[in-house]
């Protein structure tokens, strides 16, 4: 049986798949950042919901990728975890 990384590596050989995967990367990064920050604070989704006033079901949807957060919602999450939200624009890598 193949591991996830092995399967992903094979799928990324397909140019169309790779393009779609890379276009979704910013969304994956946000999802990972939200859940990693919450876990680093040893908070459950319920506890974060209580701190932020955001419904626990909505936090779950954010973390599973079925809801896209607004900037205001990201700020509320950061505040609820005692963190500062930092947004960066980073130049794309160019291939020559």
From TrEMBL:
Positions of the HTH cro/C1-type domain: 34-88
InterPro entries on file: Cro/C1-type_HTH, Lambda_DNA-bd_dom_sf
Molecular function (Gene Ontology), one example: DNA binding
Domain of life: Bacteria
Protein name: Helix-turn-helix domain-containing protein
